[in-house]
Amino acid sequence: MAEIKPLNWSPDPGIGYTVVRRPDGGMQITFTDASPATIQHWRKFSIQHLYDSDRLTRNLYDLRQLAEIPEEAIRMALEVNSDPSARNIRLAVVVANDSVRQAILKIADLTPAGGVETHIFTNVVEAEAWLSRPLEKFI
């Protein structure tokens, strides 16, 4: 079994998201706000995390506490998703409302072909089931 990559994330005061390592080696990122400080911190963490991405990864973004996603966050997510290393990511996004769902659809639609494989859910159990599918089908 491959060694799990260090998370290299620690909470900062005033930052509205948390990150934990998933048992499958991916990450679960839970947002409580989408303030400019949170989005900037997330961007820096995400870009750094992609630098040595070398295998297929399953990530879950829990956005159920967000009422909306600002345009700046959409632009930054597109930047991260456009990185060539992002092609190794299967991403389940859990949302609670249509506004956030529409923002995620916009990001997914504008992500370059062959990039992040994104699916949107309203239920964490369904998101986990999708993430648990064999990665070979993803390749």
Kindly name the structural category. Answer: alpha/beta
Proportion of residues in helical segments: 25-40%
The gyration radius over C-alpha positions equals 14 Å
Q: Strand order of the main beta sheet, please? A: 1-2-3-4-5
Strand percentage lies at: 15-25%
CATH superfamily: STAS domain
Distance between the termini: 19 Å
The CATH topology turns out to be Transcription Regulator spoIIAA
How many structurally independent domains?
1
Order of helices and strands: EEHEHEHEH
Largest sheet: 5 strands, mixed
CATH architecture: 2-Layer Sandwich
Q: Helix segment count? A: 4
Beta strand count: 5
Mean pLDDT: 88
By CATH reckoning, the class would read Alpha Beta
- Low-confidence runs (pLDDT<50, min 5 residues)? none
User: Shape, please?
Assistant: globular
